[in-house]
Amino acid sequence: MSHSTTDQAPILLERQGPIAILTLNRPDTRNALSGEDCFRAFETLFADLNEDLSVRAIVLTGAGSAFCSGGNVAEMRDRQGMFAGSPTEIVAHYRAGIQRIPRAFQGLHVPIIAAVNGPAIGAGNDLACMCDIRIASSTARFAESFVKVGIVPGDGGAWLLPRVVGAAKAAEMAFTGDTLDASEALRIGLVSQVVAPEALMETALALAGRIAANPPQVLRWTKQLLQQARTGSLDEALDHAGRFQGLAHHTADHAEAVASFFEKRAPVFTGR
Fold first, then answer.
1. What is this structure's pTM?
2. How many structural domains comprise the chain?
3. Are residues 85 and 174 in the same domain?
């Protein structure tokens, strides 16, 4: 396992073969999403991971006891950082600040799993929803809690959450701000699995491994089709699928997949 980020970085990057592990690394603020270094880290890491075809899956988790506590409430109280200035200035702060995170996720083409190790509150809940798949520790908690601090989901939560749990349940979470335990999150489809805390990373990495067994280009194209399908029509989806399929049929990995099928052996994919 190689480390390519320093221990002071806002997000740590480790590699286990074809899997990248990203760890939110601000345990002192319960991994609150604030500061230029945090926003830039998502953008630069995702850009690098997109370019690296040796990466076939990503797991995102949090250092310490929380997954992500959302916005920095102390900064809200003190009207600092993103929360400083007039209403017009705050619009600009959000665009130049936390809204860069969902935009970075929109441009991430590698499958990503959230390993939710503890509370995922407010923007932390939305961060989990930006991932493709969520697995929760039994100690995880979830809340679309913006109303509880007198604000709206400024990070795209009102777009993200209904696409994961459906319109009515998203409305209930957003209007009440109620906190859900892991079993309730599983019941409503917010997470796919709940496991004991000590089994969380093992479970997430096992799923990432099953994803990473597949060709990296095709994984990226499949993810782009799933993303496009959130907002596009069937005709648009078919056009995109046809375009990617034309490319896929001409990859060496497709030829290897078919050859290994007939030869009854494990395929060896190269990303070409």
1. 0.96
2. 2
3. yes
Q: Which domain holds residue 223?
A: 216-263
Q: Strands, E, within 122-224: which ranges?
A: 133-137, 141-143, 179-181, 193-195
DSSP assignments along 216-241, one per residue: HHHHHHHHHHHHHHTTS-HHHHHHHH
129 with 251, same domain: the answer is: no
Give the pLDDT of the chain (272 residues) as one tens digit per residue.
445 567 889 999 999 999 999 999 999 999 999 999 999 999 999 999 999 999 999 999 999 999 999 988 888 899 998 899 999 999 999 999 999 999 999 999 999 999 999 999 999 999 999 999 999 999 999 999 999 999 999 999 999 999 999 999 999 999 999 999 999 999 999 999 999 999 999 999 999 999 999 999 999 999 999 999 999 999 999 999 999 999 999 999 999 999 999 999 999 999 99
Check whether residue 194 and residue 252 sit in a common domain. Answer: no
Q: Is residue 50 in a domain?
A: yes
Q: Which two tokens stand for residue 82?
A: 């993103």
Is 151 inside a domain boundary?
Answer: yes
Q: How far apart are CA 87 and CA 94, in angstroms?
A: 11
Looking at 212, 228, 250, which one is the last position of a domain?
212
Whether 111 is covered by a domain: the verdict is yes
